[in-house]
Structures are given as structure tokens and as C-alpha cells.
Design a protein that fits this description.
The protein is mainly alpha-helical and 55 residues long. The mean pLDDT is 85.
Length: 55
């Protein structure tokens, strides 16, 4: 059950961060989704930190 709660919490945090990053204005419009890329890189970094400290 704790695993399900951890996944739900991670999804909720990711969704909120994607929304907040989406509110930031960009100087240039690009075809590449730079905001989504930035939050995915940040999420990977956070997951790596959690994995490193939980071992």
C-alpha cells in the first residue's frame, strides 16, 4: 500500500511542477517543448537523489 501512495505522491508533485513551469513565460517560442524537458530533467534528478539516499 505504501508503494501506491508513493507513486500517487510522485505523480501529484510532477503534475503541479509541470503546471507551475508552464506558467513561466518564454522569450522565444520554439517547437521543442523546453518546459516539459526541464521538468523531466528535474524529476530525474530528484528521483536519483531519493534513490541514492535510500540505499
Amino acid at each position: 500500500m505504501i508503494d501506491c501512495l508513493a507513486v500517487a505522491l510522485g505523480g501529484a508533485i510532477g503534475s503541479v511542477l509541470r503546471y507551475l513551469i508552464g506558467l513561466l513565460p518564454l522569450k522565444e517560442q520554439t517547437l521543442f517543448p523546453i518546459k516539459t524537458f526541464a521538468i523531466n530533467v528535474l524529476d530525474c534528478f530528484i528521483i536519483g537523489l531519493i534513490a541514492a539516499f535510500s540505499l
